[in-house]
Structures are given as structure tokens and as C-alpha cells.
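Reference record
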Amino acid sequence: FSITLKLLLLILPLVCIPIAIVGYLSIQASVERVNRLVRHEEMIKVKTTANKINDIFYYCRLDLETISRLPVLEDYHIARSFRLEEEAEFIYENIVQLFKDFIGRAPYYHQIRYLDREGKELVKVEKDGAVTECKDCGSERYFQAASQLKPEGIYISDILHSPSWDGYVIYWAKPIYSGWNEFSGVVVIDLDYDRIIESVKRIRVGEQGYAFLIDHQGRSIAHPQYAPYTFRLEDNPTSSLQDLIDKMVEGGSAWDEYSFQGEKKMAAFAPIPSLG
């Protein structure tokens, strides 16, 4: 070997090896930095959506409690009890206007109803106004459950397929008691759950990422591929997915890895505390 070649063989490793090490560490640091940014972005996205859905449920509960305390409902009950038809008609129009105001502020409400003590619809207001065709809901589960509650109680149904329109609904029902502590009826808000499903479906992560929503029992209730309650964990037994769902049900907010149908996935999750 010539002196030049010997010098090259001596100097090149001293130069190339540190450069390679620095380059490798720089790439790793860049990857980690990008991962942190992605996690931060997804946590912001999932928390924002969780807070939005939480606000819907929170204000639905608040509106239901507010409506149940309206004196005009008791006035309507008294007017009907004593067959004061003209007064009852005047109060009815006031109730319709109040319900329209609540629906106007909350696009997630499909309709608001006031049922008498037997379950017959007395006032029924949708987005387009009052509905004159009323029916008997005495056999409905939400009415029977709400009628057994104490004055401060609220009944929240499971997610059901609505008999009134082609979509999903959650019934929020609260009993009404008169000044003599007598059960006089039930107020019901029909929450349009399709809008919540759509808000979850709109979350896209990259080309294949998506969002889903589970309830406190770990059941899938909003998913781009499954209808509410149709996905069962036992059909796709994956221990890492079960661990993820267990962490979600605990009510925390975090970032975790899991596998589903043979694919490795990453998930950011956040709770919706208003329903527990």
C-alpha cells in the first residue's frame, strides 16, 4: 500500500464513522420530534371533539331541567284539569314558542315533547314547528322509566333507531311534578344521534385513520364502519384492543398502541364526562 492509501484508510474511518453516528442520531431525533408533533395534534383533535360532544350532552341535561321547571307547564296542566279551554289554548301557544326557541338554539334536538301523566303527547314541537298529530306513548320505555323517577331524576335511553325518521335517537326524559308533589307528566327531548355519529366520522387521520366512540361499558356507539352496538369485541379477540378499551373506560386521556385485524395502530383518546 502507498502512503496515500494508508493515510486514507486511517483518516476515512475517523471522519465517516462520527458523521454516520451524528446523521443517525439526527434522523432519530427528527423522527421522535415528528412523532411528538403528531401525537400532540391528534390529542388536540380528539379532545376538541370530546368536548364538543360533552357540551351537547351537558346542555341537553341543562335544557331538560330548565324546561321541567317552567311554570307554564304546571299552568297548562291546571287549565286542562279544570277544562279551561281558552286559557289552555293560550298557554299551549306559549309552550310551543318556548320549545321552538330551545330547538332553534340546539340543532341536535329533533323534537321536544310534553306528555301527560298517562303518556299522551300534549305538546310536540319539531324544527319546523308544532306537530298536531300526537300519539300515546304510555307503553314506551322512556316514559315508564321517567314516570318512576323522583323530581330531580333524569332518564337517558340507549341509542335507538327512531320510529319517526330514518336515524338514531337518544331519549332524554324528566318527570314533571305539580306544586302538590303530584306526578303530572314527562318532558322528553329527542336527541338526533346521527349528528353525533357524523361528527365522529368527520375525524380523519392521514389516509386510513379514523375515530370511534365507546360508552362506559366499552360498547362501540359511533364508528365509520359499524352501527351502534353492532361491533362486539369477542368477534375480534385482541388483547391489546381490550387493554385500550379498558383504559378508555377508566376515563383518562392518553396515547397508546394496539393491534386490530392484524394491523398495528396508534390511538389518542379523551373522555366525555357528562354521561360518565
The mean pLDDT is 91. DSSP finds six helices and 13 strands in the chain. Helices lie at 3-68, 71-81, 85-105, 141-147, 193-201, 239-249. The first helix runs from residue 3 to 68.
